[in-house]
Amino acid sequence: MFDSVRKMLVAAMVAGCAAPAFAADMPEPTVVEPPPVYEAAPVEYGGWYIRGDIDYHKSKMRGTNYITYGAEPCPTDCGDPDAWQGVGGSKSFDTTELRSAFSIGAGLGYQINRYFRTDLTVDYWLKSKFKGSTSDDGNFGCGSPTVPCQSVDRSKMSALLLLANAYVDLGTWNRVTPYIGAGIGGAHVRWGDLINDIDGFEQRHKGSKSWRFAYALMAGASYCLTDRVALDAGYRFTRIEGGRMFERNGAGPGFDKGFNTHEVRAGLRYSLGGSANGCSEPQAVAYEVPSEPIYTK
């Protein structure tokens, strides 16, 4: 019996020593952590922005005319001594041309939502050179020889354009957001003195200035430079109604019938609150360790 007890004790001691070694040989379970979760960063739609622009524009005059005074060309019946004594009329320039020019502008706007924004803009059009010509048959009375004459007319035009604009942003692809828009407002047009040159003899007509109705249509695209700054480039068509061009000096006053202007524009928009529209990017959400680890075999 004693031998049996001794064998049992020896077997227990051997088993106790072997257990730690066996446990050391067993592989440890692997903890599996879920991958990071990515989601689009929240976009803070709605907020103020400021903008600055430059443009290069070409204006086409829609017509000009001026008042004439004194005798008109001799009518068909030159035997009537009173027939040629006209009281004045209206004539048009034979040719008109406004040179291209630059403008600078600034504005304050508000991003209402992802697809709609508005702004108020002011643009100063630098001086555009004007060149025109007028002609007359030179008939100063019945019996006088007809001596045609032609004049060359020079002046300069500048304007201050104020517009309230609305835009529809059409979506964003690769940080590019195309848009269309329209604006309405007014333009303060300033004409310089008109110099009328006939064969070296110059006559000066004082230039006029006036407020006129104006509207614009535009299309373009913006590109995100940073989360707050966007580069804006596009085209704008601006229509300015007519008004007085120069004052009377012998002939006059003169009037222009307005302008159709084609503008190529570029500028920057800076968002004062939150990201600029379309400029936010996805970012990783912070991972939280689960309360109970997940093991795999």
- Report, as a whole number of angstroms, the end-to-end distance: 46 Å
In total, how many beta strands?
19
* Level-1 CATH class name: Mainly Beta
Q: Mean of residue pLDDT?
A: 79
Q: Mind telling me the C-alpha Rg?
A: 41 Å
Protein name: Outer membrane protein
Keywords: Signal
InterPro entries: Beta-barrel_OMP (IPR027385), OMP/PagP_B-barrel (IPR011250)
Signal peptide: 1-23
What distinguishing features does this structure have?
eight-stranded antiparallel beta barrel; Porin; four-stranded antiparallel sheet; 297 residues
Q: Could you please describe the fold and organization of this structure?
A:
This protein is mainly beta and 297 residues long. It has a single domain (48-73, 84-283), classed as Porin (Beta Barrel). The chain has one helix and 19 strands. It has one helix at residues 2-25, and strands at residues 30-32, 38-39, 47-61, 64-68, 89-91, 95-98, 101-113, 116-136, 149-169, 176-191, 194-198, 201-205, 209-224, 229-240, 243-246, 254-256, 259-271, 283-284, 294-296. Strands 3-7-8-9-10-13-14-17 form an eight-stranded antiparallel beta barrel. It has a four-stranded antiparallel β-sheet with strand order 5-4-16-15, with no helix packed on it. It has a two-stranded antiparallel sheet with strand order 1-19. The longest helix is centred in the N-terminal third of the chain and has 24 residues, at 2-25. Residues 70-87 and 140-144 have low confidence and may be disordered.
